[in-house]
Amino acid sequence: MRGVEVVEQAAKSVINPVKGMPFAWSINPYRGCYHQCVFCYARRTHWFLDEDGIDRWGSRIFVKVNAPAVVRREVARRSWKREYVAIGTVTDPYQPLEGRYRLTRGILEALADFETPAGLITRSPLVVRDLDVLARLARVAGASVSVSIATTDAALARQIEPTVAPPAQRLRTVETLASSGIRVSVALAPILPGITDSAENIASVVRAARGAGAAHVWHSTLYLHDVTREAYFAYLRERHPELVESYERAYRGKYAPSRVTRPIDQRFDAAIRAYPKVARDFIAPNGPRQISLL
Ligand code: SF4
């Protein structure tokens, strides 16, 4: 990880309330992400710290070194209702620094000890390191993992997610999690118009995800907001100059218009119909608690 400046911080609180999402709480053990995906919508969180969300997003990473201890304190409160927590909403909780800091692991342990259900989203195979604690959490409260795979084309993945493990390795991660009883989904996200939105690419990811044992496959089309827009257009100008004009027309706001998203949704629905879910057994939480997938 040459060229990465690591800033260790002591956080006052780690479980954050969330509005307008299907979950009420989130945890992000890091700020910034080594993976530097060109489409990353979370880049704007660097702006909140007056940091550059383009070049510094992947090279100045903030680490909440006391996160496991703070989470343990937060979930131990009598007022904590043990509601579902989403981990990794604006960072990858298994980016390379997690190998050294083990914050996500410590957080999962605290959640399991206090029977708090959780789901996490990642692009990293490092998540399998924590299969033991994920299985324990799945048993006591509920746990799920969402692995993001935008394409099965390794060369294209390298272009848009420069430091993420190749798609085949992520699919093996899905397989390992599913065969260990962890409820795992694949996020075909984001779908990039003109780049990863072909029927072939969408079907290829859905087929591979189903083959690996994903219980659920979901998708979303690219969302372009302030700093992400800048980073993404820089990528387009360099790698796909022929698409710049059509993107400028389509992305006058943050979201692509329905003339762009509707055909993508239709291709996705067709792929889901073509490759239906294969029934598998997953670890069910003891007792009545249920969790929803991230
Ligand atoms: S892995 Fe996730 S958080 Fe990290 S840069 Fe990529 S999209 Fe952003």
Distance N terminus to C terminus? 29 Å
> What is the CATH homologous superfamily assignment?
Aldolase class I
Q: Please state the second-level CATH architecture.
A: Alpha-Beta Barrel
Low-confidence stretches: 290-294
Q: Number of helix segments?
A: 11
Q: Which cofactor or ligand species appear?
A: iron/sulfur cluster
Class of secondary structure makeup: alpha/beta
Radius of gyration: 19 Å
The helical percent reads 25-40%
Strand content: 15-25%
Write the CATH fold name. TIM Barrel
SSE string, helices as H and strands as E: EEEEHEHEHHEHEHHEHEHHH
Q: How confident is the prediction overall: mean pLDDT?
A: 94
Number of strands: 10
Number of domain units = 1
Principal-axes geometry comes out as globular
The top-level CATH class is Alpha Beta
Q: Going across the major beta sheet, what is the strand order?
A: 2-3-6-7-8-9-10
Characterize the main sheet. Answer: 7 strands, mixed
